[in-house]
C-alpha cells in the first residue's frame, strides 16, 4: 500500500533545485523543526525516529534534506543512496499546497536529491 504524505512548501527537487523535505504529519516534531528551519532540532528528531524505525524511507529522505541544508552534502548523498537501496518505494504527495499535489516515488526524490548535490560541485 502506498503512503501519501504532503510536502513542506513547493517541492523544489522536482524542478532540479535542492530537495525539500517531505512532511510526515503536521504534529510531528521533526516536521515542526523543518518548517521553522531549525536544522539541528530536525536532525535530532529524525535520527531519534529512525532509531525506532530504521527502514522509514520518508524520514530518511527528510534527514538527507536536513543534512543538505546544513551543507553536509556527503552525508546527505549517503542517506539518499540508502533510500535507493531499499526494497520499499512508497509514494509521497508533493506540491505547494493541498490543491497541487502530485504523487511521486520516494526513490525519485532521492535520485533528484543526489543529482542536485552532484550538480552543485
Q: What's the tally of helices?
A: 5
Mean pLDDT: 78
Contiguous runs where pLDDT drops below 50 for at least 5 residues: 1-19
Structural class: mainly alpha
N- and C-termini, Cα separation = 37 Å
Calculate Rg over CA atoms: 13 Å
Biggest sheet, in brief? 2 strands, antiparallel
Give a count of the beta strands, DSSP E runs of length 2 or more: 2
Order of helices and strands: HHHHEEH
Give the overall shape: globular
Binned, the helix content reads 40-55%
Q: What does this protein look like?
A:
By secondary structure, the chain is mostly helical. The chain has 5 helices and 2 strands. Strands 1-2 form a two-stranded antiparallel ribbon. Helix 3 runs parallel beside helix 5 and helix 4 runs antiparallel to helix 5. It is globular, with a radius of gyration of 13 Å. The relative contact order is 0.21.
Quick summary of this structure?
This protein has 121 residues and is mainly alpha-helical. It has five helices and two strands; from the N terminus they run H-H-H-H-E-E-H. Helix 1 (29-35) packs antiparallel against helix 2, helix 3 (57-69) runs antiparallel to helix 4 and helix 3 packs parallel to helix 5.
Strand-helix topology:
Elements: H1 29-35, H2 39-52, H3 57-69, H4 73-85, E1 91-94, E2 102-105, H5 106-119
Antiparallel strand pairs: 1-2
Notable traits:
5 helices, disordered N terminus
Amino acid at each position: 500500500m502506498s503512503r501519501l504524505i504532503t510536502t513542506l512548501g513547493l517541492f523544489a527537487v522536482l524542478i532540479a533545485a535542492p530537495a525539500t523535505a517531505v512532511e510526515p504529519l503536521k504534529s510531528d516534531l521533526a516536521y515542526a523543526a523543518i518548517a521553522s528551519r531549525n536544522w539541528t532540532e530536525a536532525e535530532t528528531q529524525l535520527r531519534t525516529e529512525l532509531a525506532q524505525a530504521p527502514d522509514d524511507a520518508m524520514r530518511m529522505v527528510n534527514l538527507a534534506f536536513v543534512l543538505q541544508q546544513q551543507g553536509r552534502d556527503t552525508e546527505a548523498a549517503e542517506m539518499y543512496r540508502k533510500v535507493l537501496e531499499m526494497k520499499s518505494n512508497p509514494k509521497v504527495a508533493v506540491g505547494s499546497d493541498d490543491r497541487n499535489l502530485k504523487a511521486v516515488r520516494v526513490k525519485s526524490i532521492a535520485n533528484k536529491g543526489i543529482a542536485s548535490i552532484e550538480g552543485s560541485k
